[in-house]
Amino acid sequence: MADGEFCVVCGRTGRPLEDGVCAECAASRTPLVTVPEQVEVVLCPTCGARWSRGHWGPPGAPPVISSEDLAPFLSIHPEVAVRTLRWEERARSASLRELTGAAEVRFRGLERTVPLVLRVRVVDRTCTDCGRRSGRFYTALLQLRGEAAPRVTRPKELGRRLDAVWKELASEARADWRAAVAWREELPEGWDVYFTDTLAARAVARLAKQRYGAGIVESASLFGRKNGQDIYRVTFCLRFPPGILEAAESAGGAPPAPPWNDTLKKRTRRRTAERVRSTA
């Protein structure tokens, strides 16, 4: 800064100038952080996912409006660095929130507090995944089964062991894989787990093979057509070794089941004509 230069707004000298204006005058005349008068936040009332930038976010978010929900609506000056941003709810109704905020910013070496006032309209809309679950829609089926033959465990005992294996498997799976599970059904031969994402189901099947040595049989069936392309539903049949099922049940603390009574399934052998003649 050359000697004799002064701010064209306040007339003070001895301060850094940019375009003839000091930092304080520039900050008072420049909108550092602004928000619209009213914005709209779309959330799923079932899982808490947010609709942002043309797609649904991850589930599990709380129903309370947070700073992350309001961040896309902020307009920040290129020379401004936002230190902190705090919001407080001033009033609320069934679908409308009135918020006041305070943004601590730094502009050209000056620290300032910018007050903000915002009205938020909350819109409840069911996300794609929750809509599919409520409509019993699925793209992949994971079948949890025991050994193929012979059957050595009762159906209830087998279901209990497979359920223990699934709970342990789900605890090791990624969060987005677990989020793709639509529902489960218990059958006499095991458990069926329905997925809304085929890639997630395939990843869980591979994890079961790597972790428990389960055998995988994959098959696909034509479900319909969309945009001129065939749509398939994929089935992954997982068969777990008996030792894995017993170990999972013991780890889960389930009560031991009584041994299988083979005598209940035995049938009286009929004496054929040849045998009758031979003994006569």
Explain what this protein looks like in three dimensions.
By secondary structure, the protein is an alpha+beta fold. The chain has 2 domains: 17-128, no CATH class; 136-256, no CATH class. 26% of the residues lie in helices and 36% in strands. It has 8 helices and 15 strands. The protein has helices at 23-29, 67-70, 128-134, 155-172, 175-179, 198-212, 242-252, 273-279, and strands at residues 17-18, 21-22, 33-34, 38-43, 50-52, 55-56, 75-76, 80-92, 96-107, 110-124, 140-145, 181-187, 190-195, 215-226, 229-239. The strands form 4 sheets. A 6-stranded mixed sheet has the order 6-5-4-10-9-8. A 5-stranded mixed sheet has the order 12-13-11-15-14. A two-stranded antiparallel sheet has the order 1-2. Helix 4 (155-172) packs across helix 7. The model is unreliable at 253-280 (pLDDT under 50).
